[in-house]
Write a structure and sequence with these properties.
The chain has a single domain, classed as SH3 type barrels, CATH 2.30.30.30. Helix content is 6%, strand content 38%. The protein contains one helix and eleven strands; from the N terminus they run αβββββββββββ. Strands 1, 2, 3, 4, 7, 8 and 9 form a seven-stranded antiparallel β-sheet that branches. A two-stranded antiparallel ribbon has the order 5-6. Strand 2 and strand 3 form a beta hairpin. It starts with a helix and ends in a 16-residue tail after the last strand.
């Protein structure tokens, strides 16, 4: 039986400092120092999938924090396949890039024109809701 705190957290997932489309840098883990953008967020588990731009094929970004999966051949004549797929990374291992200087910064919240907005603590710039880089 779930506790009262667990039920409350299911109803109202915590507000996260990172949003879909944000430019981020990975600060811990095997891809430390890599820059990319947030493709998807799971607020309940506080995890994000981060991709980076692919110079060779701009329509297909490369996964960061990727893992290799193996799929065995199911039918005769089919080949076994080894492929790479993105693995979720905890948001505590990500930092948003400052829109002014392009360095990692912490994120704060403040009220502007009666609306709660996110801002970069290094420069004070407001963080706009970014669009996904490969979407039109």
């Amino acid at each position: 039986m779930p506790t009262k705190a667990e039920l409350k957290s299911q109803k109202n997932p915590p507000k996260l400092k990172v949003r879909r489309g944000d430019k981020v840098v990975i600060v811990a883990g095997k891809d430390k120092g890599e820059q990319g953008f947030v493709y998807a967020i799971d607020p309940g588990r506080q995890r994000a999938i981060v991709l980076k731009d692919n110079d060779e094929n701009p329509d297909q970004p490369l996964p960061l924090n990727a893992v290799w999966k193996h799929r065995k051949a199911r039918r005769q004549g089919e080949r076994s396949v080894k492929f790479q797929m993105p693995s979720p990374i905890h948001i505590s291992n990500l930092m948003v890039l400052d829109p002014k200087s392009g360095v990692a910064t912490r994120v704060g919240r403040r009220v502007e024109d009666g609306k709660l907005v996110r801002y970069a603590k290094k420069s004070g710039e407001t963080l706009a809701d970014a669009k996904m880089p490969h979407e039109k």
